[in-house]
Amino acid sequence: MLRMTFGAALSELRKAQKTAKGVSLYSRYVNRPLGRVFAAAAYAAGLRPNHVTLLSAAFTGGGIAAVALVRPGWLMAVAVYALLVTGFALDSADGQLARLRRESSAAGEWLDHVVDCAKVTAVHAAVLVSFYRFFDLSSDGWLLLPLGFQLAAVLIFCGGLLADKLKAKPKPQAQPAADAADAAPAPAAPPSRLRAVALLPVDYGVFCVVFLLLGSERAFLAGYTALAAAAGLFLAAFMAKWFRELSAAS
């Protein structure tokens, strides 16, 4: 079987995109298209989805290590941002490559989620280390900020993942088979642009942007604090939404 060229792979990927429902504007218009390019390049190079997942982990891990180990500065900030954003785009690319190669697997999905969980946990731990080692903080209370942000981020990630899995479980048939066959499926609602905008504060790609402020302690603290506050508010809203949806589905 002949391997597609980069251009042909990119064209196929454009036709096989997941729904944009529940996705922020950044992921829809920046991260997914960039991931699509990486997926096509990976396909042309003969890489497998798990290879791309590990590449994502390597780029993200490099950025996180730099936050913890290197004194903040403007050049360092740009390097960290580039590493984190590239890692995020590769995180999108592995799933797109799996669909293109028709190689989706439970093991690949597991590896992808493990890397995502490590990323969400480690990046805030690295900020905590950077605060302690390099920042001239007015109070030790600032050290609690990355811990709170980390807690909110992990709960949003794990809570959303678990809610999706539980909602996807097949329900018992509550109506006769004939009625079920006659029932027409409801048309899918178009993605909400307002929701896509509202989700920007908790989009990982937007979170990466705050690291461009690492050259200024005051600017980074302000940006990181604002996103931490947004994560706390969204956590409360998401938890109420997921609990309500799962209660209705049970």
From TrEMBL:
<dbReference type="InterPro" id="IPR000462">
    <property type="entry name" value="CDP-OH_P_trans"/>
</dbReference>
<feature type="transmembrane region" description="Helical">
    <location>
        <begin position="141"/>
        <end position="163"/>
    </location>
</feature>
<keyword id="KW-0808">Transferase</keyword>
<feature type="transmembrane region" description="Helical">
    <location>
        <begin position="75"/>
        <end position="93"/>
    </location>
</feature>
<keyword id="KW-0812">Transmembrane</keyword>
<keyword id="KW-1133">Transmembrane helix</keyword>
<feature type="transmembrane region" description="Helical">
    <location>
        <begin position="221"/>
        <end position="243"/>
    </location>
</feature>
<dbReference type="Pfam" id="PF01066">
    <property type="entry name" value="CDP-OH_P_transf"/>
</dbReference>
<comment type="similarity">
    <text>Belongs to the CDP-alcohol phosphatidyltransferase class-I family.</text>
</comment>
<dbReference type="InterPro" id="IPR048254">
    <property type="entry name" value="CDP_ALCOHOL_P_TRANSF_CS"/>
</dbReference>
<dbReference type="InterPro" id="IPR043130">
    <property type="entry name" value="CDP-OH_PTrfase_TM_dom"/>
</dbReference>
<feature type="transmembrane region" description="Helical">
    <location>
        <begin position="196"/>
        <end position="215"/>
    </location>
</feature>
<protein>
    <submittedName>
        <fullName>CDP-alcohol phosphatidyltransferase family protein</fullName>
    </submittedName>
</protein>
<keyword id="KW-0472">Membrane</keyword>
